[in-house]
Amino acid sequence: MNLCSARGRRGCLTSGVITLDGLTKVFPAPGGGDPVVALDGIDLHLEPGRIHGIVGRSGAGKSTLIRCLTGLEKPTSGRVEVDGTDVAALEGRALRAARRNIGMVFQHANLLDSRTAAQNIAHPLEIAGVPRAERERRVAELVELVGLGGREHNHPAQLSGGQIQRVGIARGLAAEPKVLLCDEPTSALDGSTTRQILRLLGDLRERLGITVVIITHEMAVVREVCDTVTLLQDGRITQTGDLLDVAADPHGPLSSELIPLPPAPTGIDALVVNCDYGDSERFRTTEDLIRLAEEYEAEATLVAGTIETIGGRQVGRVQLALRNRSGVAISAEGLAAFLAELEAAGVAAKEVTA
């Protein structure tokens, strides 16, 4: 199999760069009201051969961003460069040629019910005028690549949700794109199937060196497979960076969503403190926090917490119940000193108030 025949398997890593420079999209309001700013000066550089997550709530601008990336929407201003080509400046045949470097995977694969899996995968190749023999060779490669062997002659009604999404991924890869854009690719799938699809996307990145961009609202997807993450809010980037750096930044807007803290048990006769310790060189584990509490004549008990291993490093958000040696709550002076030392060492810590 030679899915990167023109570029070499790991040679694909030299292509697939995405750069957004001052990307702005303004829609006129219906009825002559104030215009709607969907994207407000987006500056973003995505390195090739990595998996990038773009997250944000409904209305943040994710859908508009992906339409600008594919050239389906013209920005009001700014540049949208994919592999060095400003997609926003292209029209007609040149735009269609540029789009062949961008594969798309949708939340719902939108397969043609009258076609088999193989025929659905071949559909974009037919539109591009690829000869039949070449189409059949390419489809056979893709069926093997996405794990659909034995199912290629089934129609969509005969496939599971995960298999349908695998067809969608194979179809997105049909033209050997340098970038694969995935718009909520797992939100319609159950947990087990979601993990399978994410493993497949990770494997495709490793085997093909392709750049993958996942638009999602599911933080579990970001934690599972992404190398970098960008948060969109009201059409602006409010945080972006390597996943570990973002998750370990206790003061950033994404940390609490990537590493959510479960509710603490009620009725605790102690002082409760929240601690985010992912960005600290001194405090790497919950045990480190408990040992520090002992230095302030307090006993610390873990009552709630979420700990994830990202990039080989523990990132955690925990709640500790603090009591003094007599079993009552730690003094105000002891608490202030304890929190001050944590903050000085890069741990975001604060008392939980009722």
TrEMBL record:
SUPFAM superfamilies: P-loop containing nucleoside triphosphate hydrolases. GO terms for cellular component: plasma membrane. One of its GO terms (molecular function) is ATP hydrolysis activity. InterPro entries: AAA+_ATPase, ABC_transporter-like_ATP-bd, ABC_transporter-like_CS, MetN_ABC, MetN_ABC_transporter-like, P-loop_NTPase. One of its GO terms (biological process) is amino acid transport. Signal peptide: none annotated. CDD domains: ABC_MetN_methionine_transporter. Residues 18-259 form the ABC transporter domain. Gene3D superfamilies: P-loop containing nucleotide triphosphate hydrolases (3.40.50.300). Belongs to the ABC transporter superfamily. PANTHER family: AMINO ACID IMPORT ATP-BINDING PROTEIN, METHIONINE IMPORT ATP-BINDING PROTEIN METN. Part of the ABC transporter FtsEX involved in cellular division. Has ATPase activity. Homodimer. Forms a membrane-associated complex with FtsX. This is ABC-type metal ion transport system, ATPase component. The lineage of its organism: Bacteria, Bacillati, Actinomycetota, Actinomycetes, Micrococcales.
